[in-house]
Design goal:
Structural class: mainly alpha
Order of helices and strands: HH
Number of strands: 0
Largest sheet: none
Shape: elongated
Helix content: over 70%
Length: 85
């Protein structure tokens, strides 16, 4: 059986994967909507997208690490606890 990563790393890994996906999608859509059509659209689009993504990813990662605990605390005020199995 393959060894799994320790549970204590779950929060950071969640933030890393979530921020990667979020920054990739949002930066791609925003760049697509705001660049001018040109002859070599795809290479230009990809260059701009990856530049925006690598700028956004660390910012989104830090934001998720900082905001997620606050959001979870707020949700605890309005959402029932998970039922025991």
């Amino acid at each position: 059986m393959k060894r799994k990563i320790a549970y204590r790393h779950r929060t950071v890994l969640f933030a890393l994967l979530m921020s990667f996906c979020t920054a990739l999608i949002v930066s791609g859509i925003i760049i697509y909507l705001h660049i001018e059509p040109r002859v070599n659209f795809l290479p230009y689009f990809l260059a701009q997208w990856f530049r925006a993504f690598f700028t956004a990813w660390p910012i989104v990662f830090a934001a998720i690490l900082l905001i997620a605990p606050i959001v979870n605390s707020l949700l605890s005020l309005f959402v029932e606890d998970a039922p025991n199995k």
